[in-house]
Description:
The chain is built from three helices and five strands; from the N terminus they run E-H-H-E-E-E-E-H. The protein is of the alpha+beta class. The protein has one domain (2-88): RelE-like (YaeB-like fold), CATH 3.30.2310. The longest helix is centred in the middle third of the chain and has 18 residues, at 27-44. The radius of gyration is 13 Å and the shape is globular. It starts with a strand and ends with a helix.
Amino acid sequence: xxxxxxxxxxxxxxxxxxxxxxxxxxxxxxxxxxxxxxxxxxxxxxxxxxxxxxxxxxxxxxxxxxxxxxxxxxxxxxxxxxxxxxxxxxxxxxxxxxxx
Length: 100
């Protein structure tokens, strides 16, 4: 399966990496590595994670308080958000519109 991030999800990822690097040198890169591991888990078992709606799921990261919100669309996994789990938990809905 291919994985595609919405532009807004890419921005969230970049901002989180920058934030964690500002907190501790290299921590942002550890965060990015965990995002990659989370995406690999999703690609391996796309239907295994918590459903948020009939088409949308969330996979929590292990070390950081973030989740990856995604949809399986044929041979593609569309990532709508790389989001902090305590901030605006439903913000992903606007990104997917009718297809949530």
